[in-house]
Specification:
Chain lengths: ~200, ~200
């Protein structure tokens, strides 16, 4: 399972790196997440320059796509060049947005107006104005499309992708390994609780 | 308050970026965290190349120093060139280690043998073998030196530094802003609970 973590100029490091680093804890089991960007280098909102690991086109062939957030998410969602490159398809990909990544999720009509999209509190009014509902919750998924709101809920996106890719036990192992010492079971339970209502797992998972 | 987040080859993205991104949420109040490395570019354990924002020497003049972790922390701690550059001083700096950053904290004798250092479960046996105790907890501080164990406990390091720099109310605001939507108060309380026993705040804070 290859995961494209879409990362644009002025990106939020929490949103791109928490999900990528958590999922890469499962690399020996076949999950690989890549910082994926339209340019060779992207600079974060805090001035950190990062080299893209994959070009934007990689998103089209990835098994899962996470749309990260940043200061320019609305411009990114309106950019005809970016929209022309992306051919995302929930029939063959898991797709998720983090915080203001919701703008691109909405622009690509990966969620139908009237349906819920989780996003951060600052983006919620604009997402509502586009005709979506914004649940006051950190995570929501319908079928193969998910959204999360609040930077640190990126761990719930990672949990959902891990559970869908390898089953709940692998998702547990991923969170357990990264959770604070002495609090690991509680962190696993919190992450699983956030995503469990939205999983349609096979009997084997 | 300038914060140097020490980031070495094969670094763990969670450990460097969670603490840096959280602290930079307080940039308008004067806190600025920088990815600080001995080389112009450092590559993470997952192959992400990042340009250093500051050279290693910046650590000596920073108001706070966070020693990040990675796959080569033991080599970093033993590297005479790195040790020669670093002149850290808890009398004028807050100093903290994350996970295997504990090796450099120990090598620089910023904690006395016999005292506790929090670290990740994989590093704990080696830290014990060096003569330190390893509490089964995510965070510990004595005076101006702290340590945290388990990648995601990096948010507790950020909370401690924010509270020491600007007071508890600013630390609360920082975590609240980044916490998952619908869970913000619980995340603030968890982070404050982890660090509160170790704070010696002025009456005004």
């Amino acid at each position: 399972m290859n995961v494209a973590v879409l990362t644009f100029e002025a990106f939020n490091e929490l949103d791109s790196f928490v999900v990528a680093a958590l999922l890469n804890r499962l690399s020996e089991e076949g999950v690989r997440a890549y910082i994926t960007a339209p340019t060779e280098t992207v600079v974060s909102k805090n001035g950190v320059a990062v080299q893209a690991q994959k070009p934007l086109e990689f998103a089209n062939e990835a098994d899962a796509v996470v749309i990260g957030s940043g200061m320019k998410s609305a411009e990114v969602a309106a950019d005809p060049k970016i929209r022309a490159v992306l051919k995302l398809d929930p029939a063959r990909q898991l797709i998720a947005s983090q915080c203001s990544g919701a703008f691109l999720l909405a622009a690509l009509r990966l969620v139908e107006p009237g349906r819920p999209i989780c996003t951060d509190l600052a983006s919620a009014p604009a997402i509502k104005a586009l005709g979506f509902t914004t649940p006051g919750k950190p995570f929501h998924a319908e079928g193969d499309v998910a959204s999360a709101g609040g930077c640190l809920s990126s761990q719930y996106l990672a949990t959902w992708i891990a559970a869908r890719a390898l089953g709940l036990e692998a998702a547990e192992r991923m969170i357990w390994g990264a959770a604070p010492v002495g609090e690991k079971d509680a962190w696993v339970e919190r992450a699983l609780s956030a995503v469990r209502p939205f999983l349609r797992l096979s009997a084997a998972a």
